[in-house]
Write a structure and sequence with these properties.
With 421 residues, the protein is an alpha+beta fold. The chain is built from 14 helices and 13 strands. The strands form 3 sheets. Strands 3, 4, 5, 6, 7, 8, 9, 12 and 13 form a 9-stranded mixed β-sheet that branches. Strands 1-2 form a two-stranded antiparallel ribbon. Strands 10-11 form a two-stranded antiparallel sheet. The protein is globular. This is Amidoligase enzyme.
């Protein structure tokens, strides 16, 4: 991927190809003293599923509990021909249901929106506002008719804005889950994505508000219990192969490994041992839940709550293009070079154009929001990107509550696999 060294803009990259061509093409860019030609192998198309955590209030009814609001939301979406279902209680139903392999009878469809409560978002019942989670259908990022998924997102927000007050809090979120179109990952794809996530973490931090850079719900992968001791990005990369070649489970655990002595560990570790958790910027935990054979989603969980269609579309574009770039250029990253949001942004926009995405201006606007001057503030005096040293009592209780929830995206994923295989 691009570095801080000198190279032409993406517009000067090799263009002797057609969009979505299956043939190998090349990117060209020129670091300081050499020219690097990168063969572009077949890039996987991606499917994605979005989780929207928002605070909603009805414009017409004063609901005293979230169940009433969920039912009204479902009726309203149905009237607008938006397929949906409600899961009033998102709690796991069996002791073994922590694995995606255990599919409960009322699994949500992978082709409709799912409405449920969200334990991480505080309710304000006196004001009739409740934390609601909307889980999207699985959609193809680079489908021939891109307007299909954009239309679904715009239609959803049109209904929300017309019938509900849509607000966000520090606990609200936009999670983007991705998986290659065929439904599973190769080890190479995951390693390229993981290294890209670590390398560009400081750049992606610049795109989110400060409170999402030190959130207990989106901790730093770079400074987790496994990579945190590394003094350089080169040492981080070397850790992937420490002790022999990793399998997918090993890679996922390294990316999401949490210290029992951390604030999150003190809340969730049951035996005082380090453990894996999905409360990181990039969650690879879904891969382990599916058995480590490449099945499952990877989620980018750092974005704040999206209160408009443009917000949600921007994050989908960013994650989809980032994943595609990681698969193309992830092996060429030089960890000694400093990543820059400007160069990353240029290549993200270029990839969006390559995919012929409409409304690329939304992605450009998101990238213009970068706040590099806040990076030091977010990390505090003890280092960039490091997480807070303590969590509140409310966060502690909500972290525990989340452990008892079903993995709705995982259930949708299993349903999706039945349709594509």
């Amino acid at each position: 991927m691009p570095h801080n060294t000198r190279y032409p803009s993406p517009s000067s990259a090799s263009t002797g190809r057609s969009h979505h061509s299956s043939s190998s093409t090349s990117y060209h860019y020129s670091p300081v003293q050499q020219t690097v030609t990168i063969n572009r192998p077949d890039v996987p198309d991606f499917r994605f599923c979005m989780e929207l955590g928002l605070v909603l209030r009805s414009r017409t009814l004063d609901h005293k509990e979230s169940a009433g609001l969920e039912k009204e939301l479902s009726r309203t979406l149905t009237k607008q021909n938006i397929p949906n279902s409600v899961i009033t209680s998102p709690l796991k139903q069996t002791s073994s249901s922590s694995s995606y392999a255990v599919q409960v009878l009322d699994s949500p469809s992978s082709r409709e929106w799912t409405i449920t409560t969200e334990a991480s978002i505080p309710d304000h019942a006196k004001d009739h506002r409740f934390g609601i989670k909307l889980v999207s259908p699985f959609m193809r990022f680079t489908a021939t008719k891109h307007e299909s998924w954009l239309k679904k997102i715009y239609t959803l927000f049109h209904v929300l804005e017309a019938n509900f007050e849509v607000t966000s809090s520090h606990q609200c979120f936009t999670h983007i889950h991705i998986v290659p179109e065929r439904g599973y990952w190769t080890y190479r794809q995951l390693e390229c994505l993981a290294k890209s996530a670590l390398y560009f973490e400081s750049c992606l931090d610049e795109l989110v508000p400060p409170y999402r850079r030190r959130s207990v719900w989106a901790k730093s992968n770079r400074y987790n219990a496994y990579f945190g001791s590394a003094k350089s990005m080169r040492q981080c990369f070397d850790k992937f192969d420490k002790g022999g070649k990793l399998d997918i489970n090993g890679l996922a655990m390294r990316m999401n490994w949490c210290s029992a002595n951390s604030a999150t560990g003190l809340s969730l570790s049951e035996d005082g041992q380090d453990f894996m958790t999905d409360t990181y910027r990039w969650s690879f935990k879904g891969l382990v839940a599916q058995g480590g054979d490449g099945c499952g989603t990877v989620a980018f969980k750092q974005p704040p709550g999206s209160t408009s269609a443009e917000d949600a579309v921007g994050w989908v574009m960013l994650v989809g293009c980032f994943a595609r770039l990681a698969c193309v250029l992830g092996e060429t990253i030089r960890p000694e070079d400093k990543p820059l949001i400007k160069s990353l942004g240029e290549w993200l926009v270029y990839e969006a154009s390559w995919c012929q995405l409409p409304r690329v201006k939304i992605l450009k606007d998101l990238l213009r929001q970068a706040m590099p001057e806040m990076r030091e503030v977010a990390g505090g005096s003890k280092g960039k990107g490091k997480d807070v040293e303590a969590i509140t009592f409310d966060e502690d209780s909500r972290l525990r509550a989340k452990q008892g929830e079903r993995e709705l995206v995982g259930e949708k994923y299993l349903r999706m696999l039945k349709h594509i295989h």
